[in-house]
C-alpha cells in the first residue's frame, strides 16, 4: 500500500474516533461478554473449571429470577416479596432491594495500575518510517498540553477516570510514549501530525484512554464488577432454602433461661437436624448430649469431623460450628444458637448465611430478645413468619451493693472476670499468696483445658473454689458460679474499620457474663454480681440497668465465587486488592454490613508472593488464625510455601517445624508458646479437611495435639508456679498494659515508652509496688508518664529496696482510682 494512502486511512479512522464512532484502527479492550475467548483467566485455574465453578454464582448474581416451585417465594425490589401468589409488604420493611439507587462511586485509591511493557515492538518503527522521528522535547510539550486540557479531564472523568486516576494514567502514558523504543504506527502518526501543527491535541485522547484501560482494566468492566459485588438481596442466594417454606421459632431470653435446652429438645425429637453453635465447645456439648440421648449425631467443626457411623456415612443429626453448617442438606430441624452474634463485625456473616440458607422445615433461633424485631425484619425478606417463645432466667441474679475491694474477701463460688491475660496472671498469683486455689480460663486455652478447668471448679470435692477468667466464660461452659466479680469494665475492642481501642463493656456483654452467676441444678440457686473495685460498682449498675441495644444489621462476606469472578475480570490484582475493590464497590441494603476482612487481607498479603492458584489462596486466607500469634503466622507462611511446592506436609515435617516433642512449660512464656503450637496443629487439621492430599497425616497430628493438650492442662493447673517462675526470670520490665489502664499493649504510646507500663501482670505490679516508696516513682504514677530512662532509674531504685505485696495493693488502688476516673471521663464522652 502506498505510504500516503496508508496515512490517510489512519487519519480517517482517527477522525471517526473523535466523533465517537467506533473504529477498527483503535482496538479497544474486548467487552466483558467477549472475554472468555480473549482474556487471560486466573493464573493456575483452568478456564473450563472456572466457568463450571462460576455458573451457579453467576446465575445467583446476574439472574434474580428463581426457579421456584409452587410454594416458593419470588422476590421483587423494594422490600416486598411475593409469597405463594400473594404480595405483601411489611410496613416497617426497610429498603431491602434498591436497584434504583445510584451506583456507588468506587474508591479509586484501591485501583493499582497494572505495569505494562514499555516496548511497542509489534509495529517496529513503521510510524517513524511513514512520517519522521519525533523529538522528545516536542512530545513532552504536546503531552503536557493534553494533560492540562479541561475538556480532556472531563471526558476522561465521564469514562471513569477521576482526577487521581487521570493523573496516574497520564504519568504512565507519558512514560510509555517517551520511553517506549517504538510507538505503534497510528499513535506515532497522530503525534507527528500534532507536533507539526497538522493535528489536534484532542486526537491523543483515544490512545490515552486505551492505555488507561490497559493499566486500569476495571474501567472496562465496572458494570460487571458492580453486579458481582451487589449484595443487596442475600435471600436470593439460597434457592434451595427459598424453595421450601420454613417455620422460624425464636427462643428469646437472657443467659441461663433454657433457650438452647428447649431448642435441643425439638432437635432430639426430629428425624434429622443440625445444631449450629458459635464455639467448638458448644458443638461438642450438643454432639455428646444428642448421642447420650440415643440419637446418633455427628460432629463437624473446622478442624474435626466425627461420624457415628463406622463406615463414615452421615447420621441424621449433626452438631457443628456455625461456619461449617451445610446449606444444601435438607433437615427437619435446625438450631441456630446465639443469634445476636449476627451483628458480630468479623463472624456475623456465618449467622446470616445459616439463617437465610439452611434448608430446614423448622429453624430454631436462640438468643437475646434484642434480636427479635430484627430477625422478623430479615424474615420478611424471605416471606417467612417468626414465632417467638420468651423465657425468663431459671435462677435469679442480683447486683450487690458492695464491691469486693480486696482479694481477702473472696468466697467459694466466686469468679473474677478480667479482660486481659496479665490481669489473670496477676490475680491468680495474689490468690495463691493467700493460700487459695483457683481455676483459670481464658480464650487462647485449648477447649479441653477450658473444660478441665471448668470441671475442677464445678467439682464440690475439689479444693479449688475460685475461678479467674476472661469473658471466654460468657458462652459455652457450664460453670457453678455463685458470684461474678468484674475486675474491670473496659475491654479491648475492634471497630468497623478494624481499629483497636479500649471500650467500656456493653450492656449485652455485661449481661452475658453476669448471667453466668447462679446455675440451674447447682447448689448456687441465686447468682450475685459485683465489681472488685468500689468505683466500678455504680458504673456496672448503670450498664446493667440499660436496655440492650436492638440489633439493626447483619454481617455479609464475599464468597469465593464472587472473588473468583472479580479475579477473572482483574487477573493482575492481588487477592487483598481484589477484596478491597469488592468491598468498595459492594452494595448492601440497610439491613446488612460487610464484615471486617482485615484478617483475611492480612493473610492474603502475607502469602501474596507465594505462587498459588486463586481458589487455594482464598481457602488459605479464610483459615481462622490469630494474627497476633507470631509463631502461628510464620507456620501459616511455611505451610503455604510447602503447599505451593506441591510437597505434602507430613507428620515428620510438622514435628520438625514445631520441635516436637515439647517439654512441660517452665514459665508463662513457655505456656504461651505451647498454646501457639496447639493453634498451629489446629491450623494443620483445618487445612487437612480442605486439602486432604497435601495434609495427609491428620490422625497423627491429632494424636500429638492430644498429648500437647495434656501438657498445657498440667501447665495451667500449675499456672501460679509458672507465673512465679516468669516473675523471677524477667530482667526487664513488662511492657504491657492492663485492661484497666485503658490502653492496649503494643500501642503507639506504650511502644515509644511515653506511657507508664502500668501492668497488672506480676512483674509490672511489683514494679509499681516498689515505686510507691520512691518520690520519683510516686510522681510518675500520679502523672501516668514514664520514659525508658526514668524507668531504668526506677529499676535501680527498686533493686535497692524490695517491698512486699501489701504495698502493691495500695498502688493498685491508687492506679485503679486514676484509671477509673479516666474510664468515667471516657464514658461521659
Ligand atoms: N427444663 C429444663 N430441665 C432441665 N434442665 C434445664 C431445663 N432448662 C434448662 N436446663 C439446663 O439449664 C442450663 C441452662 O440452660 P440453657 O438452655 O443453656 O440456657 P440458655 O441457652 O438460655 O443460656 C443448662 O445446663 C440446661 O441443660
Ligand atoms: Mg444457650
Automatic annotation (TrEMBL):
- EC number of the protein: 3.6.4.13
**What SUPFAM superfamilies does the annotation carry?**
P-loop containing nucleoside triphosphate hydrolases
Asked if NADP is a keyword of the record, the answer is no
Where does this protein have compositionally biased stretches of type Polar residues? 730-748
Reactions performed catalytically: ATP + H2O = ADP + phosphate + H(+)
**Which coenzyme or cofactor does it need?**
Mg(2+); Mn(2+)
Basic and acidic residues composition bias: residue spans: 794-806
Q: List the subcellular locations.
A: Mitochondrion matrix, Mitochondrion nucleoid
Region (Disordered), start-end ranges: 14-39, 730-774, 793-829
Question: Mind telling me which InterPro entries this protein's record contains?
Answer: DEXQc_SUV3, Helicase_C-like, P-loop_NTPase, RNA-DNA_Helicase, SUV3_C, Suv3_C_1, Suv3_DEXQc, Suv3_N
Q: Which residues form the Helicase C-terminal domain?
A: 399-567
Q: Which SMART domains match?
A: HELICc (SM00490)
- List the Gene Ontology MF annotations in alphabetical order: ATP binding; hydrolase activity; RNA helicase activity
Q: Which GO terms describe its biological process?
A: mitochondrial RNA 3'-end processing
Q: Which UniProt keyword terms apply here?
A: ATP-binding, Helicase, Hydrolase, Mitochondrion, Mitochondrion nucleoid, Nucleotide-binding, Transit peptide
Coiled-coil segments: none
Please name the PANTHER family in this protein's record: ATP-DEPENDENT RNA AND DNA HELICASE (PTHR12131), ATP-DEPENDENT RNA HELICASE SUPV3L1, MITOCHONDRIAL-RELATED (PTHR12131:SF1)
Q: Which family does it belong to?
A: Belongs to the helicase family.
What is the recorded name of this protein? ATP-dependent RNA helicase SUPV3L1, mitochondrial
Source species of the chain: Pleuronectes platessa (European plaice)
